[in-house]
Amino acid sequence: MGLSKENLKGLVLALVSSGFIGVSFIIKKQGLRRAAAVSGVRAGVGGYYYLLEPLWWVGMLTMIVGEVANFVAYAFAPAVLVTPLGALSIIVSAMLADIILKEKLHNLGILGCVMCIAGSIIIVIHAPKEQPINSVLEIWDMATQPAFLAYMGSVIVLVFILVFHFAPRCGHTNVLVFTGICSLMGSLSVMSVKALGTSLKLTFEGKNQLTYPETWFFMLVVVICVIMQMNYLNKALDTFNTAVVSPIYYVMFTTLTILASVIMFKDWDGQSGGTIVSEICGFIVVLSGTIMLHTTKDFERSSSFRGIGPSSPTLSTRLYTGNGDLFVKLDEESGPPDSSMCSRRQESY
Predict the structure, then answer these.
(1) Less CB within 10 Å around the terminal CB: N or C of the chain?
(2) Using CA atoms, how far apart are residues 293 and 24, in angstroms rounded to an integer?
């Protein structure tokens, strides 16, 4: 299926966005490390000294540039095309983490990068065309349909549970908590970003959408969701290895965003079963690539994992392990009493 002119614009912007965002992960983590060294309080445990660290702001500005490009991309192309292309940011951050942060990446991780690229190409080839929208009111109707309201309600409930129950108990030992909050809020922010971007696009074309309160409501949702995402992403980056946070965040965020977009914008309506299957297969290839990047990460050589033996820890071990001072001796300790999700010892061991 050939790319339409609109989809091509979205594709280019999405690729540029992924490059900037991938670089920003590395710069921001360097800033977080400097801030923690000066203040003695890490962002992962509530420190905010990084706000005074210039390097962190450089990373933040880099991420903003990437997010702006991403924002515009959603105005031209459907989320099922734009969102999976974030795999490039995983490749960029993993490679730079290996070179700059010395977070060793096995040679097999290169295969994961290739799989991410191959899967992205499949998705691009079979991506649906952007459906024409003439007013923000059309998007509002999509956002208030029962199916999407049910999804949105489920997301809000899950976020509250993660923030107030799991985060205080095991947020610093289980990477899925902080990244889960980011991903859930991210799926809502993308829907609002697409709605707001489309509204601004129509406004620039001469169809003023700023007179509608729905446009400003979507803007408010974007601001709230982005603030929450940045807060918990900082916690995740400061607590866990960059090459762990990046792929897990990507997998969860992309999956939830595609689900939300399919529900709200009906991206798959009008596509053949074969085309949809091809898109899903491409997405699975991308996910497999990110998982391979994660599981081939050499934690043993990282100074933040002192005491690990020569054998490589399993995937579930890595999911429940933070930086050095949070490392869990799996064969000696039992899990915390309040939540099975926080369990540090798996029966499979």
Answers:
(1) C
(2) 19
Q: How far apart are CA 127 and CA 143, in angstroms?
A: 22
Two structure tokens written together for 25: 């992960």
d(CA 239, CA 178) in angstroms, rounded, equals 10
**Residue pLDDT, tens place only, 164-208:** 999 999 988 998 999 999 999 999 999 999 999 999 999 998 999
Give the whole-angstrom CA distance, residue 53 versus residue 50. Answer: 5
Two tokens, residue 61: 């500005």
Name residue 164's amino acid.
F
By CB atoms closer than 10 A (0-12, 13-18, 19+), residue 329 is: exposed
CB atoms within 10 A of CB 225: 22
- With a CB cutoff of 8 Å and minimum separation 6, the contacts of 184 are 155, 158, 159, 162, 256
CA atoms of 116 and 86, how far apart (whole Å):
10
Partners of 105 in the β-ladder: 297
Residue closest to 191 by CA, chosen among 138, 144, 258, 261: 261
More confident residue, 49 or 285: 285
**Count of CB atoms within 10 A of residue 129's CB?**
18
Which of these, 236, 252, 302, 235, lies nearest to 97 by C-alpha position?
302
- Contact (Cβ atoms closer than 8 angstroms) between residue 229 and residue 155: no
Between CA 327 and CA 95 the distance in angstroms is 24
For the beta carbon of residue 86, count every other beta carbon within 10 angstroms. Answer: 26
Q: What letter represents residue 264's amino acid?
A: M
**In this structure, which amino acid lies at residue 284?**
I
Bridge partners (DSSP) of residue 297 are 105
**What's the pTM?**
0.72
Cβ distance 43 to 245 under 8 Å? no
How far is the first Cα of the chain from the last one, in angstroms, to the nearest whole number? 47
Chain segment 74-133, per-residue pLDDT in tens: 888 888 888 888 778 878 887 887 788 777 767 777 788 888 888 888 888 888 877 788
Q: Is 297 helix (H, G, I), strand (E, B) or coil?
A: strand
